[in-house]
Amino acid sequence: MRRFIYGLAALGSSLLMAIGLPLAAKAAATVTVTPQSMDGWAFVDDTNDTTVTATGHMIKGPGTPPLGIGSAELETTSPIDGQALMKNAYAGRKFSDLTTLTYSTYVKAGNGTIAPSVQFSVDKDVTDSITSWQGRVVFEPYLNGTVTDGQWQSWAANNGNWWLTKPGLFNDTCPQSSPCTLNDLISAFPNIGVNGGSNAQILFKAGSGWTTQFVGDVDALTVAFSGNPTTYDFEPYQIASTTDQCKNNGYKDVRDGDGQEFKNQGQCVSWVQHNVNGNGQGNTQHQSAATNNNPSF
Prior knowledge:
Oligomer: single chain
Order of helices and strands: EEEEEEEEEEEHEEEEEEHH
CATH topology of the largest domain: Jelly Rolls
Helix content: under 10%
Strand content: 25-35%
């Protein structure tokens, strides 16, 4: 597998760790990832190391996703095609500190076996100064249960079987033909973890050797390294929930409950006041506010 370096990700709430605080004081954070606010995530053509020919996108559905109304979709069209959704994150974190790694998949078109994997870029020893590319460590659903097309399934990857894309750099440990657990890797390499700097990656991947054309989706990724978990909710758009989101042209980046765009700030504010603050039903206020151009909200 090849690597893609797309620069340092923006440091957002998804990467904040409440270091030094008691565990009881830590609350799970949910980050909504949309095309307008990707939080450092990027769709990548992993075969050619570029975003230009990436085919992934955010969609509504399929079915009833585990979080929100949407998910991130990956599609491959040939055996050499490899498509990914990745983020530069968790640099230098040890796998021995990984306490939670769960996500959900939905296969629209597959073969009853394949489903999107979750992967980290890997470093044999995150405490040394070597941060050269050492491949990835890969969790694949079919190695950890039965993949059923046409329904959402959840996977507890931190407790599952993984394989290394470059086992030769790890004393031939955990090749794809003989996967192992993260605990096995930790026993062999106590300081193994996520590669550092611009090589740091967490990603979903579909393809690269899959002989069947594939279309599938991922959602509800939860990650925790020794502390506060972060959950990523992949959505095609963000539904307005506060009037502040409507201000300063923010109405252009949010939608109503039916996924409709707002025509102006006043329409957005009115919809929130009726449907969120007032617990109204449907889009009654949205329709009545269609001609409201009041910029004073």
